[in-house]
């Protein structure tokens, strides 16, 4: 049997839960439209406060995921995975609950009807009440929540998140949030009853309370130890992310709300708190990456699909959504600044078989990267003593594309035919006796590729210069973007394989369209919580997967420049061996 108040009453509503704010919105609209003299409206202020609370958690979550700034001061090295993101998806349930608790309080206590905007004395009373009442009361309740029955039926949910992050603060049962809401309301109600309450006090206390919760639940140590060295008494007045992490890890110490003073008085203060705090802040705990995948931007609007903008959004495959368009000017300005002054920065990471894998973003677009480094050759030529192996991963990309072409196919139409991938695909297919129509106007480049093929296979490579040549071919491999008008030349029933970014428009209803070449990472991957562009969860671009295989196999050579066609089958078999799977 489910324990009382251990699940949310609107749990089955999903995102429709936000309709429960409807009565408050209706009250505000009615008052604005039909009341001649506008009155003090608590429904309006509660809605504003709810929005601000949500903004505090969202902004703190974003800052927490600025891995390029915070990676050396992370309390936990593991990153948040999809399972934890899903469990914390409705982290803001407590804001909705507290909205109705606040509304009930305003109707229950007449003192809330005529509050002044500002009363300086109220802040002092609220601070004293917080220190003398809220902190010890929360400490006592928190210790009770760790008793067997209450922990099993209630508080274990909060501790189920492996990696503490800002939004973890909201993951708790309704009973816990009711208790915490009542405790948080004590200084507000008492100060108002004493006649020192004000509107700014309510806003300020609630938002500071939320900010401090975000601070402690974040996995980035942002409190400099020098503060405690210079003013030692402060270590008993404010906790740190490391301090709270030790509570989550060991669970029998560090129970305080914000002030370790009460742990010291209750003899529950973890003796390792300050030493570990120094160690983490100094960066000693940092693990350097074993594998780095360099990715690039596709377009301005999709550049928002990063963890430090919206954590939940990036845990789903990228699709263009209406709420993104107002952010376009900011995304464009940021992209331009990074283009001019920025450098590669860390975006996401995961762990595979004990090794740290990271994805870094180069603030350039795909065509710029190719022009800049020639598929990695620039690094190898300019840095002959390079101690890391460089790979473009396109050998596995070619293998994935080729695996999607049925064995019985005898004719293929290929665009982007003289690119690295186009060349490798054409040469591989001609070995199978497949006739490849290579769309290119450069006879010189075509002949160069044709001359690479064995003499008995050269006749399988055919240069074409117009799309009309493929009007009877039902297998198209698209390596260069084609318009809907050009797609019309494909006969009904054509399948469009593609390795072009972004993908072509799915214009033809009588044809089928393949996805970008991709592979699913092995099942034992840990800490993966970000979808790579339009890829599904756990799926990465084939070039990323190619780099992973290169690393796992321990190849000593670089994989740069042109693709070695003889290695395509070898790399494919290696990918299967290490547990990567085609999508």
Key features of this structure:
583 residues; alpha/beta; Rossmann fold; four-stranded mixed β-sheet; 22 helices; 43% helix
What does this structure look like?
The protein has 583 residues and is of the alpha/beta class. The protein folds into three domains: 11-282, no CATH class; 291-368, no CATH class; 393-582, 3-Layer(aba) Sandwich (Rossmann fold). The protein is 43% helix and 11% strand. The chain is built from 22 helices and 13 strands. The chain has a six-stranded parallel beta sheet, covered by helices on one side. It has a four-stranded mixed beta sheet with strand order 1-3-2-11. It is elongated.
Concise synopsis of the structure shown:
This protein folds into 3 domains: 11-282, no CATH class; 291-368, no CATH class; 393-582, Rossmann fold, CATH 3.40.50.720. The protein has 22 helices and 13 strands. The protein has helices at residues 22-34, 42-64, 67-70, 82-87, 93-108, 120-145, 148-155, 174-193, 199-217, 225-230, 241-250, 261-265, 273-282, 328-341, 366-373, 377-382, 394-403, 420-431, 443-452, 484-487, 542-553, 568-577, and strands at residues 291-297, 345-352, 355-365, 411-415, 435-439, 461-464, 475-478, 495-498, 512-516, 518-520, 525-526, 539-541, 581-582.
Topology:
Layout: H1 22-34, H2 42-64, H3 67-70, H4 82-87, H5 93-108, H6 120-145, H7 148-155, H8 174-193, H9 199-217, H10 225-230, H11 241-250, H12 261-265, H13 273-282, E1 291-297, H14 328-341, E2 345-352, E3 355-365, H15 366-373, H16 377-382, H17 394-403, E4 411-415, H18 420-431, E5 435-439, H19 443-452, E6 461-464, E7 475-478, H20 484-487, E8 495-498, E9 512-516, E10 518-520, E11 525-526, E12 539-541, H21 542-553, H22 568-577, E13 581-582
Parallel strand pairs: 1-3, 4-5, 4-7, 5-6, 7-8, 8-9
Antiparallel strand pairs: 2-3, 2-11, 10-12, 10-13
Family: Belongs to the sterol desaturase family.
Membrane topology: Multi-pass membrane protein
Transmembrane segments: 46-66, 95-115, 122-141, 178-199, 322-346
């Amino acid at each position: 049997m489910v324990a009382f108040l251990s699940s949310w009453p609107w749990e089955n509503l999903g995102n429709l839960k936000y309709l429960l704010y409807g009565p408050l919105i209706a009250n505000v609209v009615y008052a604005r439209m039909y009341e001649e003299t506008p009155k003090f409206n608590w429904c309006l202020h509660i809605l504003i406060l709810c929005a601000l609370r949500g903004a505090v958690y969202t902004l703190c979550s974003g800052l927490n995921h600025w891995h390029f700034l915070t990676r050396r001061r992370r309390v936990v090295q593991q990153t948040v995975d999809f399972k934890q993101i899903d469990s914390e998806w409705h982290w803001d349930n407590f804001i909705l609950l507290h909205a109705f608790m606040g509304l009930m309080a305003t109707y229950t206590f007449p003192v809330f009807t005529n509050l002044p905007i500002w009363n300086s004395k109220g802040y002092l009373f609220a601070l004293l009440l917080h220190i003398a009442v809220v902190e010890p009361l929360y400490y006592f309740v928190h210790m009770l929540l760790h008793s067997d029955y209450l922990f099993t039926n209630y508080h274990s949910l909060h501790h189920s998140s492996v990696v503490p992050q800002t939004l973890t603060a909201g993951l708790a049962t309704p009973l816990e949030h009711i208790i915490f809401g009542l405790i948080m309301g004590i200084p507000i109600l008492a100060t108002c009853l004493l006649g020192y309450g004000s509107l700014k006090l309510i806003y300020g206390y609630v938002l500071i309370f939320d900010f401090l919760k975000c601070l402690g639940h974040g996995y980035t140590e942002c409190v400099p130890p020098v503060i405690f060295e210079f003013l030692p008494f402060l270590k008993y007045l404010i906790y740190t992310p490391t301090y709270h992490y030790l509570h989550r890890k060991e669970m029998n110490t560090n129970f305080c709300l914000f002030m370790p003073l009460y742990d010291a008085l209750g003899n529950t203060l973890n003796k390792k708190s300050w030493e570990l705090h120094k160690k983490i802040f100094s960066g000693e705990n940092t693990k350097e990456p074993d594998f780095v995948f360099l990715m690039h931007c596709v377009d301005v609007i999709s550049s928002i699909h990063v963890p430090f903008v919206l954590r939940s959004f990036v845990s789903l495959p990228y699709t263009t959504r209406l709420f993104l368009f107002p952010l376009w000017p900011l995304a464009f300005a940021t992209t331009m600044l990074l283009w001019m002054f920025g450098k590669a920065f860390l975006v996401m990471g995961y762990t595979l078989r004990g090794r740290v894998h990271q994805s870094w973003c180069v603030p350039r677009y795909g065509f710029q990267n190719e022009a800049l480094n020639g598929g990695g050759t620039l690094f190898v030529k300019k840095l002959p003593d390079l101690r890391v192996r460089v790979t473009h991963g396109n050998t596995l990309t070619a293998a994935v594309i080729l695996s999607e072409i049925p064995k019985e196919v005898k004719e293929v139409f290929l665009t982007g035919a003289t690119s690295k991938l186009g060349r490798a695909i054409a040469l591989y297919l001609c070995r199978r006796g497949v006739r490849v129509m290579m769309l290119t106007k450069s006879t010189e480049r075509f002949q160069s590729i044709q001359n690479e093929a064995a003499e008995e296979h050269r006749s399988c490579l055919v240069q074409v210069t117009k799309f009309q040549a493929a009007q009877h071919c039902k297998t198209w491999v698209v390596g260069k973007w084609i318009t809907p008008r050009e797609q019309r030349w494909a006969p009904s029933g054509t399948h469009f394989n593609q390795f072009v970014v972004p993908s072509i428009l799915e214009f033809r209803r009588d044809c089928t369209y393949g996805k970008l070449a991709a592979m699913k990472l092995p099942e034992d991957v840990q800490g993966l919580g970000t979808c790579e562009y339009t890829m599904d969860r756990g799926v990465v671009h084939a070039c990323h997967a190619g780099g992973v295989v290169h690393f796992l196999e321990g190849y000593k050579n670089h994989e740069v420049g042109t693709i070695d066609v003889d290695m395509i089958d070898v790399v494919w078999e290696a990918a299967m061996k290490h547990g990567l799977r085609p999508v």
